[in-house]
């Protein structure tokens, strides 16, 4: 009888820990969303731009032999596309 009571007690503590963890996870996620919210559009467009220009950057690195020149050319092209779109 003592064994079954202790198992129920441990089970209820684990359930309480799981609920506390879930509450903490939801709270932190909402706080993160509130902080990142104003920057969401910029983050999305930077991600799209990085994905689009990554193959160009890799190819320019092979052709030029230096990462600095490739980064400068890729950035100039990305900025020229960005200004034309605005």
Structure in words:
The structure is a single chain. The chain has one domain. Helix 2 (40-64) packs across helix 3 (67-85). The protein has helices at residues 2-36, 40-64, 67-85. With 86 residues, it is mainly α.
Major sheet attributes:
none
Q: Could you give the distance between the termini? A: 74 Å
Number of strands: 0
Rounded radius of gyration (Å)? 25 Å
Number of domains: 1
Mean pLDDT: 82
β-strand amount: under 5%
- Uncertain residue ranges: none
Binned, the helix content reads: over 70%
The number of distinct helices, counting runs of at least 4 residues, comes to 3
Assign the structural class, choosing from mainly alpha, mainly beta, alpha/beta, alpha+beta, or little secondary structure: mainly alpha
What is the H/E string? HHH
User: What is the global morphology?
Assistant: elongated
Any chance you could write out the topology, listing elements then pairs?
Elements: H1 2-36, H2 40-64, H3 67-85
Helix pairs in contact: 2-3
What structural keywords apply?
86 residues, 3 helices, 92% helix, elongated, mainly alpha
What is the gist of this entry?
With 86 residues, this protein is mostly helical. It has helices spanning 2-36, 40-64, 67-85.
């Amino acid at each position: 009888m003592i064994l079954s009571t202790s198992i129920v007690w441990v089970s209820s503590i684990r359930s309480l820990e799981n609920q506390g963890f879930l509450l903490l996870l939801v709270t932190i996620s909402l706080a993160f969303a509130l902080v990142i919210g104003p920057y969401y559009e910029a983050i999305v467009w930077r991600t799209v731009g990085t994905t689009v220009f990554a193959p160009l950057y890799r190819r320019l690195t092979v052709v030029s032999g230096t990462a600095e020149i490739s980064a400068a050319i890729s950035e100039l092209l990305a900025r020229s596309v960005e200004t034309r779109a605005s």
